[in-house]
Specification:
Four copies of one chain form a homotetramer. Chain A is built from eleven helices and 13 strands. The first copy, chain A, is of the alpha/beta class. In chain A, α7 links the parallel β9 (about 210) and β10 (about 235-240). In chain A, α1 packs across α9 and α7 packs across α8 (about 270-280). Chain A is elongated, with a radius of gyration of 23 Å. Chains A and B meet through α5, α8 and β11 of A and α5, α8 and β11 of B.
Chain lengths: ~375, ~375, ~375, ~375
């Protein structure tokens, strides 16, 4: 891909995918650096690629980003939907999926935008890559995954805040577990990678950590609980990543209709684990599903800084002509990597990971 | 009941019922005031009335209470079970319920204990009252209900911490609700009284608050959500007390078996409300059940102080011969009230409550 | 004072004096209740009475108060200066103090304002009273003092947040005091009343609490520190209200010029106490002055609720014709009291206060 | 240095230098891994090298480390003094400094200790190195500096907590600065390196950041404050590292005696900067010195994890015969480096640092 440096005067920015603490800090850095350092005009598109397709946009000046650094969420809005290369359009009363990327390019041209900063997860970055490849649109990606499961960067913003929230929850559950001699199960995020569970579990003093990378058996989990009881420790703390799975089996959790109202969002793996422990050990067990609390709230100082560095670098790289790349953390530096290499390469917890090893050595069970 | 003042040299203390932030602060104040001010010996019974029945006890000196002021839970352990007047005993291979209160009195005599501080909820305080009435055991109660639903005291410790935890959760949900244009539902504690939901809802800027005292209709709840959308506010926050109920109906939520594992602790009213809103408005809705997080963690400064005042007053009142009473907050003073009057008298949210009125005036819907 | 009920269509609001967490929550409640419940127009004056005098004002609709509930400070700005009855005016190159209250009334008339909500401390409320008495301006006061030293109300907003901040500081100092076997001194706010020091001291497990109401001697303070050391407790925590004073003496702390720069804001009583302890006991002592951190930050849920109730009541009372009054907390109700009675009546810590008694019984020294 | 692997059965551990959040997490990991994984006996020495010299020690089992993970400080105690190679001994009524390292080796032999984990700053690690070089004592160092100014490791524990505390302080000061249109100055730690000021300043949205690495002029600082005022921003936030210095000058801050008590710990650079700004701009300025609050409190999840990894690695490396080394973070791995290389090599903020560049591009002034 030739890197012909474009004369950039106006840039666009959008946030796509699930929200993560630090998104606003990225937007703020993008706007401040673009306007102060390079005298650019910045246009923000609303609700991810939806706004780019439907041309919902507004100008972002320094005034718009005042006070947003400590705020969670994204002032631009975001969605998990709306792929311009596969967009639902109604035709003759039916919904068909079309490529509307041409409309996107028209909208950009209409705003006079020569470059885009696209902040998002794997899905958003793949769209960014496609826009770059197909239309040579100068684009720079900023990775966003609260799960920290991207191989191309040492860390992503939002992860530290999520781990902090989960650790605070474990600190709280500890006192109630102790007082009631219970098993407390906490389900945290992590569908494919167990980073949040691993980190929060170690930081929160868990006894069992279940992650997608290490299939567990209920027997091993209960063995740990019983071992603690024999040693006079009357409570246990279990952290379960939402994607954790027992050996050899998929969990089938279906939606059921019964009673006078139609229930219910059934619980996930956390509740399954809790029920099994109570059943197999006879020890009172309680389950908490942390859910959306992990995505919300004011970002930690770590995430504010990483997000700020990413946002500033995104603009700098765009002005240097590093198109089609994604910013990344290469400790202690901020670097970039081609979008083509970045997306799809997942960083999972390796079995030889030193934190896993340390956890095992301290007596934490992974249920295997 | 004659108040013959007993010469007290040794006292016992126990914590009963669900744990609440501040229990340790009460225990600490009891031990410090008893030993320093009155030169008493203090015996702590483990796991509520269970320890009193089975004579599991240990001496508490100042050393045992060092560092527990900021810690949640109770160093003595607690349970919701174990009533000495109705205690399960195995006889001829069958479990029968017996009155073992005589054994309790023997245990107390064995320790040379002349007075008891009983910290607990309605159930524990009723047992305390019975021990006082039947055996003239000098007893003083300390009320503990995280729901703050006791008529006899202006406030109970643990409530402020629970409201703080719920408010912090709402602050977090706000940012993610805004970013995704979603309805966020938060289920909080409060089976019979909606104090936590009301306070956290107002403090956390909720749009809808559903409490047991005000039956709601799904139509009214959705009306509020739709009204906000029409006004350009794309998200809504709904707080639901676990005991909230729709007009004219009990919720039947049953346990269902399906799939390869046996699910599941089905969600409660929070999930029901979330499903209905999504179904009726078509707006993406997410539900978080705060659960045990509300009972845990370090007590707020308010709760530490109230718990300390209660603990100190309990010992003072016991030494003054105010037996069969419960300490209470009569702002700004600590007073006492006969246990017989205190238990069973529930403080529910009155419809004319000024906070309910203020909430309505600010546009918060109670779903009625 | 005759209470002729005025037909009110437009009201003004201002915040005066030092800022306190919860001010924004009051403003928000005023605006929401005024507009939604009564259809009023609300004008906000900037920077306390300064904005009223200089006619710096802006309209406040619901839009202006979105998102301010959890935010500290005041969106209207505030100052400790600017009394319309004693206002500095330059005349012939000299500053003379004049009564410019007539100008205030003209400004109000210009906006068509028939009633004012004045949120402020003793100084602001006295001005409010004067405006009511002199001009029969329908005015309602909302008390604001972070020190909680107003007799006419059970509590003021901001106090709980300040105590929380001070308690968190004590929790932090505890660990470092323990590790280094040091005496840690924390100076907190409270020039005339020791409520913050008393509450934070008890909540934070202090060993010595020094407040304006109880003159102390350095000898007694050191006695406590030495007593602890003899008992094997190698550290001590001392909380000092900024207005605490030793027996029989004013502290003379002067500004000194020395060295290559002109120093310095000299430390206050906290540093004096720290130096004396180190000198008299030979134990390493460190001092922290909490200062403005106590005024800042997101209000606690308690303060948000109290502030909201105050704000809503202020508008309701104004519409009911309760002019010249101040809203107040009469647990569990919100009431009102004539401004004439409210101002100047200070609530200080009584020696017989049950919290002081409990603190003493637990071994906390007040240095007397 | 030959690495003859010793058969280790008993190890010692101590913490030296100023305390830092995470010390307890290191101790816990050392004890857990040593006992569970290797069956070792662990002896903890009290108060740094003082305990090693005076043979104040106690056995540490898993029981001793229960519950300490979330607690700040160190259960072993620590000091900045007590170098066994230069130890004050009284001889003939005079204090002379002697080498008492022989006594240290005798004490270790008396306990049957074959290896030491020494957790500390530059001073402690130099002593560790000397013990290894002179006596071939198998020793492994764990770096501890809250300032994060050690070249040999990507990060040290305690730093993230300190930055978090400073950022929270800035969040609080922001609201009060805004409300009162003031300049708020926050002095943070960092005598030789400005990492805390830089990170907290960026995370807390500061307008000016002054660090030891970049000499500043008061004129440039005030220029920024005035520039903001001209742009309608009525407040400014200034973060000052305690070691920040104006161009071309040492600050002479002397202790002065005046008034009826002997003042005072004079303020440091924070107060100097605050006074100058107020004097030169005429804008009200307030100064807060964060001081010891930065060292205290519960470690963040990040610091708990890093400390745990360091502690586990220390024991593993010791058992692998990697003597005379210091554990370090080489993202994403834990590695080690010879003590001789580690000590004395300071990591200061480079002018080309990407965070400094990003900060400048966003309009933050470094006063140069």
């Amino acid at each position: 891909m030739p890197r012909t440096k474009v004369q950039i005067k106006r840039i666009g920015v959008l946030t796509g995918g699930g929200d993560a603490p630090g998104l606003n800090a990225v937007i703020r850095a993008v706007v401040k650096v673009a306007t102060r350092e390079y005298g650019l005009t910045v246009i923000g598109f609303e609700d991810g690629f939806g706004g780019l397709i439907e041309n919902r946009a507004r100008r972002l000046t320094e005034k718009e980003v005042v006070g947003i650094l400590p705020r969670g969420g994204t002032i631009l809005g975001t969605t998990n939907r709306d792929n311009p290369f596969h967009y639902p359009v109604e035709e003759n009363g039916e919904v068909v999926y079309k490529d509307v990327s041409g409309r996107v390019m028209e909208n950009l041209a209409g705003h006079g935008i020569q470059g885009m900063v696209i902040i998002g997860g794997d899905g958003s970055l793949k769209i960014a890559e496609e826009l770059w490849k197909r239309y040579s649109l100068p684009v720079i990606g900023v990775p966003k995954t609260i799960d920290n499961d991207l191989l191309a960067t040492d860390q992503t913003f939002g992860f530290d805040t999520a781990v902090t929230t989960a650790t605070e929850a474990l600190d709280k559950l500890h006192t109630t577990a102790e007082s009631h001699h219970r098993v407390m199960v906490l389900e945290v995020m992590g569908r494919y990678a167990g980073w949040i569970a691993l980190h929060a579990g170690v930081a929160g003093g868990a006894d069992v950590i279940l992650i997608p990378e290490i299939p567990f058996t209920f027997e091993k989990v209960c063995e740990k609980v019983r071992e603690r009881r024999r040693a006079g420790k009357k409570f246990s703390i279990v952290v379960v990543a939402e994607g954790a799975k027992p050996v050899g089996g998929e969990l089938v959790v279906k939606k059921v209709v019964e009673g006078s109202f139609e229930p219910l969002r059934l619980g996930g793996i956390g509740n399954v684990v809790g029920d099994k422990i109570e059943e197999m050990t006879g020890i009172e067990t309680r389950v908490t599903v942390l859910g959306h609390l992990q995505r919300g709230g004011s970002p930690t100082s770590f995430d504010r800084i990483l997000a700020t560095r990413f946002g500033a670098a995104a603009v700098n790289f765009l002005m240097e002509g590093r198109y089609g790349e994604m910013v990344c953390l290469r400790t202690p530096d901020i670097g970039s990597v081609p979008l083509a290499e970045a997306t799809g390469a997942m960083k999972r917890v390796a079995l030889g990971n030193d934190l896993v090893r340390a956890a095992r050595q301290m007596g934490i069970s992974f249920g295997d």
